[in-house]
Design goal:
- The protein is α/β, with parallel strands linked by helices.
- It has 3 domains: 13-89, Arc Repressor Mutant, subunit A, CATH 1.10.10; 100-162 and 270-301, Periplasmic binding protein-like II (D-Maltodextrin-Binding Protein, domain 2, 3-Layer(aba) Sandwich), CATH 3.40.190; 169-267, Periplasmic binding protein-like II (D-Maltodextrin-Binding Protein, domain 2, 3-Layer(aba) Sandwich), CATH 3.40.190.
- Helices cover 43% and strands 20% of the residues.
- The protein has 11 helices and 15 strands.
- It has helices at 13-25, 28-35, 39-53, 69-97, 107-114, 118-124, 176-182, 204-211, 228-236, 246-255, 284-301; strands at residues 58-61, 64-67, 100-105, 129-134, 148-152, 160-164, 169-174, 183-184, 187-188, 195-198, 224-225, 241-245, 259-260, 266-267, 272-277.
- The strands form 4 sheets. Strands 7, 10, 11, 12, 13 and 14 form a 6-stranded mixed β-sheet that branches. A 5-stranded mixed β-sheet has the order 4-3-5-15-6. A two-stranded antiparallel sheet has the order 1-2.
- Helix 1 (13-25) crosses helix 3 (39-53).
């Protein structure tokens, strides 16, 4: 009589995913944020996996968690397996759906640079469905369904090709009406003026003031906005001065809606970049879009 060999049993995928995220972040809270669940749910899934394995993967302390030797040993292989699964699903999805582009973009770049060009993009790429998702940080391209990203990025990322699109500069901007009030005996004085801040680039005012040796202006004062587009709208409404990023405020300078409050432009260490995951970089549609966006940035740069 034939005897069936024992079948390999695997723990639930949700438990493995919860452990891998918690191990990578060394935090149940950060893992929960990534997985869009509660920290308690992550802890419960990890506990279920530990019960299935018959041993602890984390040491629990009042200050947090720490991987056990077994957990440390298992994490790299599990992370690699999750990455490979994500890539396999994305490749299958791409083959099934055909001509689609999924772009992840920093909200400021998505709203102020890409959005005004979407109509032209659709005209230049007929039949291609373009989707844009705004996010503050670049995605994990191996696990999230994006073909490329549009971000300010000053550090390399593994398995991601970074294409520099433009150099960028800081310069304070305001309405023409406010600009008239800044001139004192032929000089521009910013002392006492309301400064508008974007929380993502909260250090831009300090960077520009330090570079220009303009002492006596408190870079920490003024209202803060979670979206750069909101801070820009406040500047357009005449509520104060915005530390402009030239690539984003150039159309408003060209139209005259905003004026530079100083002729001094301070270079930023990085400008807008296109992020191309290695598994998508060689695709024909991706290359066509890279050429299109490079050409669009060059055309925009020629106007200022």
């Amino acid at each position: 009589m034939a005897v069936d060999p024992p079948k390999l049993r695997l723990p639930p995928y949700t438990a493995l995913r919860a452990f891998e995220a918690a191990a990578r972040h060394n935090s149940f809270v950060a893992a929960a944020r990534e997985l869009c669940v509660t920290p308690a749910a992550v802890a419960q899934q990890v506990k279920a996996l530990e019960a299935w394995l018959g041993g602890a993967l984390f040491e629990r302390h009042s200050q947090g968690i720490a991987l056990t030797p077994q957990g440390r040993h298992a994490r790299p292989a599990l992370s690699a397996a999750m990455d490979q699964m994500g890539l396999a699903v994305q490749n299958l999805r791409s083959e099934m759906r055909g001509s689609e582009l999924h772009i992840a973009a920093l909200p400021a770049l998505g709203q102020l640079w890409l959005s005004p060009r979407l109509r032209r993009l659709h005209l230049d790429f007929p039949g291609v469905q373009v989707s844009v998702t705004a996010m503050e940080e670049p995605p994990n391209f191996k696990r999230e369904p994006f073909d490329m990203g549009l971000f300010y990025l000053d550090a390399p990322r593994k398995d991601v090709r970074i294409v520099g699109l433009a150099k960028d500069h800081l310069l304070p901007v305001c309405t023409p009406k406010i600009l008239k009030t800044l001139r004192v005996k032929g000089k521009i004085r910013l002392h006492g003026q309301p400064l508008l801040h974007d929380t993502v680039w909260d250090g831009d005012w300090a960077r520009w003031l330090d570079a220009t040796s303009m002492h006596g202006v408190d870079a920490t004062t003024g209202p803060r906005f979670s979206l750069y587009s909101m801070a820009l709208q406040a500047a357009l409404d005449g509520d104060g001065l915005l530390m402009g990023r030239e690539c984003l405020v150039a159309p408003y300078l060209v139209s005259g809606k905003l004026r530079a409050a100083s002729p001094i432009r301070v270079p930023l260490p990085t400008g807008p970049n296109l992020l191309l995951p290695s598994h998508r970089a060689s695709h024909t549609l991706t290359q066509q879009f890279v050429n299109w966006i490079q050409r669009s940035f060059s055309e925009a740069a020629s106007t200022f």
